[in-house]
Amino acid sequence: MSALKEEADALFRKLKEDEILPDSGTYNTLIRARFRDGNKTASAELIKEMRSCGFEGDASTIALVTNMLHNGRLEKTFLHMLS
């Protein structure tokens, strides 16, 4: 993981420790980063967490998932998770 991603993860953890609810933009950015790294498990966990907080995937996250589905890099369950 790059230093920038490690820093983003640390900041995300700090937000949650301080009981500051991340917004949908924060979740979507982290989800896209995990997808690009091929970390499907972390992506799924973030999607579930995001949904439990009442947020949805944004257009760019859904487009990324759709492209990865088309290329055979993801299962259809990921699209369902974002809808």
UniProtKB/TrEMBL annotation:
Q: Enumerate the InterPro entries for this protein.
A: PPR_rpt (IPR002885), TPR-like_helical_dom_sf (IPR011990)
- The question of whether Magnesium is a record keyword is answered with no
User: What PROSITE patterns does the annotation carry?
Assistant: PPR
Origin: domain of life? Eukaryota
Key words, A-Z: Repeat
Which residues are in coiled coils? none
The UniProt entry annotates PPR repeats at 23-57
What name does the UniProt record give this protein? Answer: Pentatricopeptide repeat-containing protein
- Per the UniProt record, the source organism is Cardamine amara subsp. amara
